[in-house]
Protein 1
Amino acid sequence: MIYSMTAFARSDVSGDWGNLVCEIRSINHRYLELVLYLPDVLRALEMSMRDTIRKFVKRGKIECSIRYQPNANAAHSLFTVNEALVQALCQANEKISAYFPATSLVSPTDILRFPGVLEAKEADISTLRKQVFHLLEKTLKELVLSREREGAELKQLFFQRMDLIQLELAKVRTRLPQVIQEQQERLVKRFTDAKVELDPNRLEQEMVVFAQKIDVAEEVDRIETHITEIRRILNQGGAAGRRLDFLLQELNRESNTLGSKSVDNVLMHAAVEMKVLIEQVREQVQNVE
């Protein structure tokens, strides 16, 4: 199974201690980047939470937000007020206010917003730890399921595009001998119209040179090989985004060579169609883990 890097999951849990809400957003990124938004009371759990997230996702930009609302009955036991800091802030406010008489007084809410005024008790972290990690793992599992569902849709899209590319390759294989035959007839007609004596050896040399110029057998074989490898990676699953991106770059390079060697409208059209299909897959592969 392959996984998309775009997903969203949300979970919440409530108890006598209060309410926790966890939201995780995932978008595509070259590597794994974790961004956590936590209340001050949960800051001590950040490193452990990062380790937990890494167990579930391997690539993408992950934004994890946890909101905590204590119950009214328990709120008084969750925090202590740094009275020394509050006193210092009030004294500083009085001194500053002397220079700005018209300025309104600072409210208690403004004081509470200052970092360090409310201090979380260490015991509260141990009380919440189990609930936080249970909620985090639950949300991560939902996120992975969402990434898996979208990854399954992308996988089917990739298989469809590979089938269409192989149809274009079949047109190339079928058309190439006809192109060589038509070119031979065209050369013969030119010699006949010019009333020039036809030298069989010269004609054979011209056809050998032409066949070498338009020979795309190697390109076609390599495209087939890349498609086979892409199918294998898709069936194998896991973190496949980077490998798929590399193979699609190679597919694009071979299709460019195929187009540059084309001297026939059918071959040229097949090369263009393949490039369009490859580009469609490349755009979506950027979103694969």
Protein 2
Amino acid sequence: MTIQWFPGHMAKARREVSEKLKLVDFVIELVDARAPASSQNPMLREVLKDKPKLIVLMKKDLADLQATKKWIEHYEQHATAVAADVNNKADIKAVIQKAKQLGDEKMDKLAARGIQPRAARAMIVGIPNVGKSTLINRLVNKKAAKTGDRPGITKQQLWIKVGKDFELLDTPGILWPKFEDEQVAYRLAAIGTIKDQLLPLQDVTAFVIRFMQEHYEAMFEGRYGITAAEQDMWDIFTKIGKQFGALEGGGKVNFEKVANIVLRDLRTGRLGNVTLEQADA
């Protein structure tokens, strides 16, 4: 399965990121803590090359804490990494502190060459709907960037001051041209990164159900009363539909409504703290 989704403004954004990279001292790359590798754009990896980088695992409040710790260890082999819940002030301070450390390293090198110190400059990048605009607003403690629950809402580049610590260049979320790995596509669809119209919601939901049964059996059973031993997807959808009133006329279960219920439960944390891929995968 190959899924293509590459709006024109994203192609332009990739070019601009490449062009503006020489203006910044380091990069802040955001990934979703629930699917860190799948939400890390391989195309950006090529563009960013050896630029110093801070990786922020966003939405840590929805992810599996132990899995997040392993992902941070994984990323810190080649970058600086931190996990963040944008509604947690301590996490926002941690992001600023980590970013400031990267900026100070660059400023020390400039000072050693006799260049007058200035505010460090960073570029913030990530795929759509990963939480860039919300994080920026928390960093500057005001509404500096547009936010929304629709992927791809930021469509221009903006320089934003983060106190006296550094200046931040916001960029639009960028997806790569196509998803050749079916698992990556399903993970991103499950957490709402790509538009629901791109994949059949029932297929995405079936993927989530199988994953939950294998890795988070107790949480899944606690929410829906369905064990890992129950494998017939028709029966599973039917049980959930009847339990949550996803019915049509005559009492028939509406599978599309069931899909929306399960995905909503995953995306809002009602299913529990879930990470859809492991760092050693």
Protein 3
Amino acid sequence: MNVSILYVVLLILLVYTIAPTLLIRFGNIGAISRASGAGRRVSLTFDDGPDPNYTPQILEILERSRIKACFFVVGAKARAHPELIKQIAAAGHALGNHGYRHKVVCLQGPYATIRGIRETNRAIEEITGEGVRFYRPPWGLFNLCSICYCRLKGLKVVLWTFMSWDWGKRATAKSIARRVLNRIRDGAILIFHDSGSTPGAAEEAPLQVARALPVILEGLQKRGLKVVPLEEMIELQRPGNLALKKCARRLWGGVEWTFRKLGGIRELEEGKNSFYRMAPRRYRGKDWPMPDGSLLRRGDTYLELHVNNDRLLELFHGNMSLERLALKALREVQKELPLLAGLLKNDPDYRDVKILFGLTLLHRGTERLGFTSIDMKPGVFCALTGWYERWLLALYHPYGFKAVKAYRQKPAPRYLVMTRRQLLDRYYPGKGDGSGKRCPVDSASRAAK
């Protein structure tokens, strides 16, 4: 089966930008947009500045009301107006990273993404002498690299609870105040803009914000809502919201379903929910020597294996370690390998398959089943794959990243390969472990319980 260019492009977009944005924006995975149970508190944030015309006006209003906010600034504007950055910091407000030139991050490559975040942090730190804690991407769009870099640098990703649409050409002070006060609730993170120079924004929109702000602050006070710094709001955020995690799993399930349909990934047995799924592919790389001495050549067919995450979720029990999870997963794989051997032996659609191929973090003990694990070549693809696999495992594990971090060694993905000859010799009915004899992984599993 040939992998079409369209499929490859869609796959890259899905993994690199669509899935990260959907999971963060709608699943709140790895970001904060509202603090639950905040005790009648809200926070104010301002994007796209600093602006010499409007930022001083906003600062003056906040000073009169003795309120602290967070300004998510654009790096290039910070360089152009360092005096405003100093004024914001001197007034006790927080400064966040909003990209260097307010470009759409999801359309940028890894290098441009990292450079934009890094240069903005550097600009703020050089002007104020203090580090940056918060990041908000332009338009709230992400890519896989921006998420990885924020986690690596300890940047907290902050979004917003709802839009006031203050940047629109038809926005007025009255309409902005009405939208905010009608939708305000406990724990909200409000977003406004103190610059109108970004694409799609009205140039004088921040003037309407400055006029609406006193009305909004008075309305918040009447409703018994206290405006607190963003740092305090984040400290109030309750970790491990199970409802959000369940929502994210469902969302990711929809993404996976689309991916399977586009990629021709099917169940091991039609109509049955197998532990792993598969798709025949054509090999496009250089000649690859296999463990049994055979050679995988360009144009040969291999069978790509994918773990069924719903079935993997069923294996979790309490605070299970990754070692125990890996052993339980091995037992599930062991049960289905004889079925796969029969498929390759008897089904003409699979008669040309030369090897089984997979990529996983849960590779410990796979040699007991006949697989050979191979290290991935260090590089960007290896790093991104490792992050993606760890993130996916944390999404499905009840204890999230705590379980991944508790692993004795940082889990790294590896290729798993098994040749057709090895599979049939070992698992075809009447052969090896496929005959029903106990595999070493069974005793290891019992010992790990």
